[in-house]
Amino acid sequence: MAAPAASSGGAGALRVTVLSPEQTVYQGPADGVVVPAHNGQLGILRGHAPLMALLGEGEMRITVNGADRRFRVSGGFLQVADNEVTILSERAEPA
């Protein structure tokens, strides 16, 4: 499934999906993502190397067209591959 294009140029955006057991919390383009990893904050921008990480607990920020969207996450995993970020969290909700 293709993500919607960002108004600042979808070709330059990350594709981000945030899933919790109850729902899809966010799915769409982003300029960047900052997540609370198990051992500290982790920032993801376009072109990031492939990565898998354990999530910690705290605030996650998804930057879309220069504006931050904030979410609370607790536990789970993050995967980055080919400018696509997938976050599977035990709990994720808007902050």
> Into which percentage range does the β-strand content fall?
over 45%
What is the overall silhouette?
Answer: globular
Oligomer: single chain
Alpha-carbon distance between the termini? Answer: 27 Å
Helix run count:
0
C-alpha-based Rg, rounded = 12 Å
| Mean pLDDT figure | 90
Number of strands: 8
Description of the structure:
A hairpin with a 4-residue loop joins strand 1 (14-19) and strand 2. The chain has no helices and 8 strands. Strands 1, 2, 3, 4, 5, 6, 7 and 8 form an 8-stranded mixed β-sheet that branches. With 95 residues, the chain is mostly beta strands. It starts with 13 loop residues before the first strand and ends with a strand. It has strands at 14-19, 24-30, 32-37, 40-45, 51-54, 57-64, 67-81, 84-94. It is globular.
